[in-house]
Amino acid sequence: MILILLPHADxxxxxxxxxxxxxxxxxxxxQFATPLGMPAYADSRLVSLGFGPLNPLLMTPAxxxxxxxxxxRDPAFCSPLPYAGVDPAAYEGLLIxxxxxxxMRSLLxxxxxxxxxxxxxxxxxxxxxxxxxxxxxxxxxxxxxxxSVLHGRKVTALLAGxxx
Length: 164
Hints:
two-stranded parallel sheet; Rossmann fold
């Protein structure tokens, strides 16, 4: 079983539902966790509100929205664990989707999320993070080294601007 950490709101629906579906297709069940154990809400701009004339470029594609809505009907999504109730030893892998709106702070600034991340890294279990998700990894300090759990590891990311 994999663990998917979501903030209380504002995550990206594609960055959560596509890996959720891929895990299911590979035979893995998923358990969700949120700050207080309440179902999470994706960024409404990406799900329903839109971006006006920029909708064709920025809105979540219809197929991804359908997958997102299927994910929101999953019993594990409807009854997530609170971060504090997560036992990382019970899971084979960790996924942290991204998002870019204010609600992501409930995940990115959580000490409980750092506890979970650290346990996965200490157990050498697979960890995946998308978009702003790697920021949670970078902020997680391994007390044994005093450095980020990402120190010395190769990670992938999009560049913020041209390389010089």
